[in-house]
Amino acid sequence: MKGIKLNIEQKNAIQGIFYNENCFFNCVQDINNDWFLFLSQSDKAELVNTNYAYLLLLSEFEYVPPIIENPFN
Amino acid sequence: MIINPYMFGSAYDSDAQAFFTANSTLTDATKKNKVNQLFIDLKSYGLYNKFYAFYLLNLGDATKNRFNIINPVDSDSAFRLAFSSGFTFSDTATTPNGSGTFAKTFLNPSTVFTEDSIHLSTFGTQNVPSRYEIGCWGPENSLLTRYGSPTTAYLVSNTSVFAGGTNSDNSGFIIGNNLGGTTSIYRNNTLIVSASKSFAKGGTPLALWCSNRNATYTENAEYSFLPMSVATIGKGLTSQQMTDLNTCIQTYNS
User: Fold this and answer.
1) pLDDT at residue A34 above 80?
2) What is the mean pLDDT of chain B?
3) How many CA atoms lie within 13 A of B55 on its CB side?
4) Of A62, A71, B96, B145, which is least packed with CB atoms within 10 Å of its CB?
5) Could you tell me if A63 lies within 8 Å of chain B, comparing CB atoms?
6) Interatomic CA distance for residues A36 and A38, integer angstroms
7) Chain B 70-129, CB below 8 Å of chain A: which residues?
């Protein structure tokens, strides 16, 4: 899936920040340790007229998750 | 003759009414009736006091889904949920994206649980390969409903203390339960695995849809893909109580 790729400053500016009463931004790292943000369609609609609308203008890239070994094997 | 209904009190169970009062944006009568029946059923089976947290995740949006129905106070200390970005909310389930979506419960097992008395449960609305449905760390108290290859359901205390059994379908009601050193996992009241495993209390706050390793929610979080309509966190249950809880939650989801 695709997500919004952020630099470290962009990530630090929003990580854990609530954008409404119930929801906060969560950024995660990919296999290359780059930071990504994933927004649902309802998230995007909600952010349009907010101070976070700039996120919607950032480019999306394919996300490759980190490899985690099965700890139970 | 006009009868003032307020003369006779609410039509709902008193705790259901408290939930509706707190959850004021939940106005749909059909949903409220189903929720009310859930409260009635839990009490009739003697289960209502077995939960630390009980979440209904098919009420339509984060605002409605956030409350712990057992203690519907809008605060972290009441274990109400905070949702990450990326979820899709509907009248069927809350659906994660498997790449960073999770919810904080603020429930830390180390201060809430009793040793060897724990259950974690989910009602999945689709069958999907997944990772951690409910999790914490150091020690773990984690439920995985369909993990790895071959896909396996796990209830975990740590990577060497866990019960695991093959499971290829995580739709429906799955409960991981530890009571007095016996750990078992059931799907729709059918046993997946039972083992003698003693569980320590988890060390970080529990998360829905990920493993909260080192309290970061991001480090090796292994985010879930499972759409859920219900999740519960509570005390260890007897076999009969697990059967009864399955009945209650299946009825709610019917």
Assistant:
1) yes
2) 93
3) 35
4) A62
5) yes
6) 7
7) 81-89, 97, 99-102
Q: Is B10 exposed, middle or buried (0-12, 13-18, 19+ CB in 10 A)?
A: middle
How many C-alpha atoms does B43 have within 13 Å on its Cβ side?
A: 11
pTM of the model: 0.95
Q: Which residue of A has its CA nearest to B83?
A: A23
List, as one string, the DSSP characters of A28-55: EE-TTS-EEE---HHHHHHHTTSTTGGG
What pLDDT was estimated at residue B1?
55
Weakly modelled stretches of chain B, pLDDT under 50: 5
Of B87, B164, B222, the CB nearest to A68: B222
Q: Cα Rg for chain A, rounded, in angstroms?
A: 14
Predicted local distance difference test score (pLDDT) of residue B2: 53
Token digits for B91? 């009248």
The CA dihedral of B67, B72, B77, B80, to the nearest 10 degrees, is 0
Substitution target from B23, B75, B85, B157 for chain A, most A beta carbons within 10 A: B85
As given in the structure block, the two tokens for residue A44 are 């995007």
